[in-house]
Design a protein that fits this description.
Helices cover 75% and strands 3% of the residues. By secondary structure, the chain is mainly alpha-helical. A two-stranded antiparallel ribbon has the order 1-2.
């Protein structure tokens, strides 16, 4: 896979993570939220849709041939967020605080940097 294709996939992952986890800021605070938090307000269906959208980062990781262990860790972040999201009020707070998509992108970027360092 070429460096430009890798960078393109990372950029797509970052853009999706920002849309889902940090598109908007809460004025006068350092907190940001995205579609994930808004979807979390819809019981069950919102959390399910949020989890499905979060799989987009894992799809990019799969196309980059990330190891299965990394992909499973990313799936674990999505599953944890889904479980937390099923708890009323706590789940809504967790959607803003946990930021599963940003975590997953950070994991993916760290793996790509480690692979590049080995070259």
């Amino acid at each position: 896979m070429t460096d430009t294709e890798t960078e393109r996939r990372l950029r797509r992952s970052r853009q999706l993570a920002i849309l889902l986890d940090g598109a908007w800021g809460i004025p006068y605070t350092p907190w940001r939220f995205g579609l994930d938090a808004l979807l979390g307000l819809l019981p069950v269906a919102g959390d399910l849709l949020s989890a499905l959208l979060g799989l987009g980062v894992i799809v990019q990781a799969r196309k980059l041939k990330a190891p299965q262990s990394l992909q499973l860790k990313m799936l674990g972040n999505i599953a944890l967020d889904f479980l937390l999201g099923s708890v009323p009020i706590i789940g809504d707070i967790a959607d803003v605080a946990f930021r599963k998509n940003m975590r997953n992108v950070a994991l993916l970027e760290a793996w790509v940097a480690a692979v590049d360092a080995e070259k």
